[in-house]
């Protein structure tokens, strides 16, 4: 079963959101495993629109899909493209809030 990584972001300026989204979506092409192969199955997401008022100020949400926990672990701990993106997010896009959740569909 696929491993799902949910990540939500809050940026200091909403004006930076469109270019931030485009930059994030490039991870599916730029993240390569130790054999030089792409390993992100998909990235999908959108603007946070919940009316519940429990969003913590998050403005955009993504679901990053991997084949398994090992690929997700590589992404989090070893992938240089992901590490570079995290630095860029703080400096260029002024990300000042991140919320992450992971799950495997159907496992409770």
TrEMBL record:
InterPro entries: Dabb, Dimeric_a/b-barrel. Residues 3-103 form the Stress-response A/B barrel domain. It comes from the Eukaryota. PROSITE patterns: S_R_A_B_BARREL. Signal peptide: none annotated. Pfam families: Dabb. This is Stress-response A/B barrel domain-containing protein.
């Amino acid at each position: 079963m696929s491993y799902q990584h949910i990540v939500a972001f809050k940026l200091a300026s909403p004006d930076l959101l469109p270019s931030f989204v485009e930059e994030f979506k490039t991870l599916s092409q730029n993240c390569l495993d130790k054999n030089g192969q792409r390993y992100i199955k998909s990235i999908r997401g959108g603007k946070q629109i919940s009316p519940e008022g429990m969003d913590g100020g998050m403005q955009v949400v993504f679901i990053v899909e991997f084949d398994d926990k090992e690929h997700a672990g590589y992404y989090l701990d070893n992938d240089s493209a992901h590490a570079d993106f995290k630095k860029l997010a703080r400096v260029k896009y002024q990300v000042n809030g991140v919320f992450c959740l992971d799950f495997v569909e159907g496992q409770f």
